[in-house]
Amino acid sequence: MSEARSKPRELRRARRSSRHGCWGHLVVAPLWVAYDANLGTLLRTCDAVGACLAVPSTPHYRRALAVGDTLKGRRPCLHWVAPSKEGWIEAERAAGKRLVAVELAEGATPLPRLGPAREPTVLLLGHERHGVPDDVLARVDECVEIPMAGWGASLNVAVAGSLVLYRLAGLA
């Protein structure tokens, strides 16, 4: 005699009974992302790990999120970055948040050694081709590198951001 298995919908209801709102503990900031699809994917990852998404208040980002929002009305916390990215980053630092960037850099922490965020943290994600600007990298607390075995120079920004978010959230 086999036991009845719970349906995925029932499991979701039991395990994820409420939205996270804004806890402010973990914020992903893809401030230089070019491709619309990456923003929708990151929004979904933020929902999965209980993080907030911070994006520039520009027509490009608003349009990309409107198209890529598959959560339809149940989206996670969203912070609009204005008027300047640099000003917002400095305000986050002044508020005591740790700044982490995903980037190949001298002394970067390999992803497998990255521990969960123990303090309010902002994860900065760069442009798909150019990465995080050098002047911003010079001011971050930590860079995270994702080890790769293949020939590619980097992962898609939404994939890279999702991998690092799961580690920072303590879920991987």
TrEMBL record:
InterPro entries: Alpha/beta_knot_MTases, rRNA_Methyltransferase, SpoU_MeTrfase, tRNA_m1G_MTases_N
UniProt-recorded Gene Ontology molecular function terms: RNA binding; RNA methyltransferase activity
Keyword Endoplasmic reticulum recorded: no
Domain of life according to the entry: Bacteria
GO biological process: methylation; RNA processing
Transmembrane segments: none
Any matching Pfam family: SpoU_methylase
Domain tRNA/rRNA methyltransferase SpoU type: 33-166
Keywords: Methyltransferase, Transferase
Protein name: RNA methyltransferase
